[in-house]
Sequence to fold (494 residues):
Amino acid sequence: MKKDFYRSAIKESMSKDILNFSSSLKDDLWIIEEDIIGTQAHNIMLFEQGIINKDEIKKILVSLEKIQNKIINNNFILNEDFEDIHPLIEFTVIEDIGMDAGGKIHTGRSRNDQVSVDLRLKFRNELNILSEKIFNFIDILLKLSKNSIDNYIPLYTHLQRAQLGQFSHFINYYIAQILRIENRINEVYKRINNNPLGACAIGGTSINIDRKRTTELLGFDGLIENSIDAISSRDYIIEILNLLSLFALHISRISEDLIIFASKEFDFIDIDGKFCSGSSVMPQKKNPDTLELIRAKSSIIIGNSFKSSLIVKAIPSGYLKDFQELKPIVRESFNLIFSIIEILCGIFSTIKLKNDNMKKAIEESYILALDLAEILVNDYKIPFRLAHQIVGDLVKLSKKPNDLFDRAIISKVLSDNGFNDIISSLSIIESLHNLKNCLDKRISQGSPSTKNVKNYLKQLNFEKKEFYDLYLRRIQKIQNANTLRNNIIQDLIA
Ligand code: ARG
Fold:
């Protein structure tokens, strides 16, 4: 059989250069296993529907298994005469078992629904790998959070010291963001895990296929009803890239935080030397290169989401070859995010907190000013706007942060503002000086009092477990479908 057997009505053949330009063969390696699985399911269904007979399905499944083994053993030859993996596999089967049986494997389907099945099968696996990595990352962060309760850190707005906080509270914020990513993965997964197979080219088929059966054999949650929707829509790809883009954005900011905290100007953390580089010329340098690269690689992931929208936005309804360019983009984004998470897991599990330096930064700042103003509100019923002014005056008069608690200065400012009656009970104000007391006064839900932080940490642990159960259910469903298919295949081959 000639290798360009799809070109039944085209007289001219493609030159090597043009074939090279058009080919997705190398990118298709990413979905080759999924392509075989999809073909197995489709053909089991064709057999069950009486479209191919017992002898034919046996030959087809044996032939597909041979290809599978070659792929596993790395000796499946990627013959570059083919424009993509789909004709290559069909050709290989026909060459192996002949046209009578092999010529039937593509009955009632097209490459358009086939590539979409392959991608959906691949993406759900990639999303599961991503979740697994996310859970590992979250475990590391949960541990760090648990170990850094009552470690104080300045909290920043405008990159200026703003309020007293604690490190655990800071890490909990990262965890909450990442758990929301996992939540989104579940949402996206529901839409990815649907079966487009059976849409055929675009308008369905007169062959008596059973789409519900392939849905079951492939462990999909449902099927894409409309045949045009099944082969034309690419929202499922854009959605994944948007999700990865959002994750990349979080991760980039986390990296930026660490870079800042590790600088000598802050000196709040020490990043393990494994993740740092030296300078070619300045012997003293320890540069957080991996974090800088994460920041840049995140930009590539964010760019990929934009790039894919640009590719899809002007494509008329139907399948068009433009779609082919999306595959390497998604692969790149997944691979980048996987490597980034690995690095971050390493960094966070070896990070050293320089608690004394964080405490020093707190003590050298006027970070307790708002807490002080709130004491005036809570304990002395002074209107907040006035309290803001009084503490502002106090800051202006102070030469150093400790002066905020200097009786003489406080008394002066209070009496200047007409509050002589308070001066006798200044000990309430002085109690703020103790950082733990200060945080324990922050009773609002979500604030960094030790009680709040501990409760929230429990909640985060609980949420993580809930998401983990959902993830296990996703995996289980795929495993059940794999077992179902493999048992059928073994029976038919025997
Ligand atoms: N290589 C193609 C892709 O990645 C497969 C689908 C080709 N379909 C077609 N009608 N040319 O999208």
Notes: The CA atoms of residues 460 and 466 lie 10 Å apart. The chain is about 65% helix and 5% strand.
